[in-house]
Amino acid sequence: MNLFSRLYRGETTFNFIGRRWIGFGFSLFLVVVTVVSLFSRGLNLGIDFKGGVAWEVPAATLSIEDVTQVLEDNKLEVSTAKIQELSGTDGRRIRAQVGDQPAEVRTAVQNSLASKAGVESQDVSVSAVSSSWGRSITEKAVRALIVFFILVSIFISFRFEWKMAVSAILAMAHDVLLSVGVYSVTGFSVTPATVIAFLTILGFSLYDTIVVFDKVHDNAKRLSASRASYGDVVNVSMNQVLMRSLNTSLAAVLPVLSLLVLGAGVLGVVSLQDFALALLVGLLLGAYSSIYIATPVLAVLKEREEKYRMKAGQLSLGEDMLKLFGVQRTEPGVSREADSSAQRAMPRSEASTFASTLTHPPRPRKKRRR
Known about the structure:
This protein has 370 residues and is α+β, with helices and mostly antiparallel strands. It contains 14 helices and six strands.
């Protein structure tokens, strides 16, 4: 079978645990970049968090340079202003955001923009947000995040064990931190929609991790009587659910890409851009962390147990891993009947060892009547 067929059947033999330090090193590098960027650049907080005023004006005959000139004429700081060109079903519009301003300045800019665009003053929308509202959103989001982590830890510890809970929490914290780092490095604006997306991606990250943990839990019991190390258990489990994880991630990413490309890019709905971008980053990180962070961390913790300590670092690769799957690969040019005959011809000790790795042991043969 080719690689795709084996991937579809869950019979690949990728050595995830043997290469776990590559994933750890890559994640550590990204975390360092994130921390440095957060301290040096910070986050580009939207108007909802730092407070300010935003004007939105129809721009059929207006350019960004015209809006910039209006702000300068009203003695506003243009270097810190955020001016965006929006497009949608209601036509082209330009949005300008600055820091908090007195009521007379808001009205003066509104009238100037209306005069420059050749529209009525009421056609220019004005929105003002206090910074205290943004602080309230941030505090509630942090509280929700802490409560979520506590409840998830209790559930996973009850359903599986506390080491799986620690691994899952570490993977989710990894996803949130790197998602925030992407916004810091790129300078994308952080809005309430972004915060909502960050909380949403935790659910996906946890779902993908639980799928892998459930398979690890089952295989640990199935292979408990064999000589398999915990690294073997994890490798087998991750290969068995790899196709499912890829399909789940692909099915989740495609609609988000549609929101980002069609909704924000083609239709010009900027509010969708903030939400979809955070979701896209989080979904990709969630799929990555469930394979290269959560499960390898679990393997490191479990290999310290007395049951697996002596077997730590012992990994079955290639055909040996396939035997743990319960899969018997037939050599090219050899029929399955001949391969089965070869298995029957094995010494009793080897045959029993192979049979013990099967998911369902072979049924005993009936004795022939004489």
